[in-house]
Structures are given as C-alpha cells and as structure tokens.
Amino acid sequence: MRSPSVLRLLILSVPLLIVGCGGSDSAPTSSQTPPDAVRRDVEQSIASLNEMRESLAATIDTSAVDRRTFKRVCAPVGKRARQLGADRGWEVQQLATKYRNPAHEPDAEARRLHEEFVTSPELTERWIRTTRSGHEGWRYARRITVQPSCLACHGPKDERPAFVKKDYPEDRAYGFEDGDLRGIYAVFVPDTSTGDAF
Length: 198
Ligand code: HEC
Description:
Elements: H1 2-25, H2 36-58, H3 67-71, H4 74-88, E1 91-95, H5 108-119, E2 125-132, E3 135-145, H6 151-154, H7 162-167, E4 181-190
Antiparallel strand pairs: 1-4, 2-3, 3-4
InterPro entries: Tll0287-like_dom
Domain Tll0287-like: 37-190
Keywords: Signal
C-alpha cells in the first residue's frame, strides 16, 4: 500500500517542480526588487552613468583618438561608478565577457546575468535577490549597448588606438558593431545600505 501513495505523491509533485523551476527563470517579481526609493535611485543613477558615456563618446574626434581622448570617455565613467558606490554603499561595476581591463571580468553570477541579455535582446535591466561576500541584498544589471561612437576604440582589432594596443595586452573588447551587447553595469545593493528606505 505504501508504494502507490509514494508514486501518487511523485506524480503530483511533477507539475509543482516544473512551475517552481519556471518561476525562478522568469522576469523578476516584486519580491525580487528593493523598496521603490532604492530601486529608482539605482536605476536612475546607472541610466545617467550610461548617458554620461554616450554623450562623452559622441564628442570625440575619431581621427585623433589617444590617451587624452580616453580620459574623456571611459575613464570618467569608471571614476563616477566608484564614486557612486562609495557615496551610497553599493558596489558599482562594469563587467564584460569581452573585457578590455581584466578587472572587469564577470563573476559567476554576473556571467549568468550577462547571458540573459545575450539570449533576450529586448531585456534592458534585471533585478535579483542575492548574497555577496556574506551580505544579503539585491543585484541590478543593465545592458550596455555599443553605439557608432564606441567603434573608434572598440571596433576592428587593427583599428584600435595605439595606446589601447600597448596598455591592454589582454584586450578582448574589440570587433563590436553598432547595437551589440558591450557588457553590463552590475550594482550590488546590500540590505545594510537601504536602511533609510524602509
Ligand atoms: C577613446 C577610446 C574609447 C571610446 C571612444 C570608448 N571606449 Fe570604452 N573603454 C576604453 C578603454 C581604454 C577601456 C578600459 C578602461 C579601464 O582600463 O578600466 C574601456 C572600457 C570600457 C568598458 C568597461 C569594461 C571593459 O571592457 O574593461 C565598457 C563597458 C566600455 N568601455 C564601453 C564603451 C561604450 C559603450 C562606448 C561608446 C559609448 C565606449 N566604451 C567608447 C576606450 C574607449
């Protein structure tokens, strides 16, 4: 008499398991996003970081791209990202599987998020609940899209500026085309940084 009921239980739990797995893969639910004030703060801060790079890149003279030009494009973005993290108690990163600076290689979780942007071209941002270095919190990821103005430094391998070829021997961040996924902004927001929002 025992085995039929065990079997029935197994059969009954199959759809539940399927629903359970599907749930974790689908779009984020409200329980996976932080309180509204925090969510807006993160999303707006990263949107303006992204706008900053796009407007800086649009001003460069592509015929003379050198270290000084770089100082006006991706360098200030990295600086602003670090400053933002320090101000708010977040970890603000720019990560890419095809990185230029090896410090921007994604961790395992960021790699999975990056993969979601590869497989879902319509996805622009994503929140997950996670634990990082023993701290509970949220992680936000936003797509970084290649613009024509990025190609002066992230276009064909042979056309990269001399300073890039020299300073980044491990460079993988070339060969992109307009509209490609360049990488992601990844922000870890520990619960300890959101105290005021509750
Ligand atoms: C003037 C050259 C130049 C232009 C133009 C440029 N970049 Fe970069 N980019 C660089 C360099 C150099 C780095 C490495 C920065 C570092 O050492 O942290 C970099 C790094 C990055 C990174 C960090 C991840 C990594 O690969 O290290 C991202 C993301 C990025 N660029 C995206 C863009 C986008 C998007 C555009 C266009 C809107 C753009 N870049 C335009 C030179 C440039």
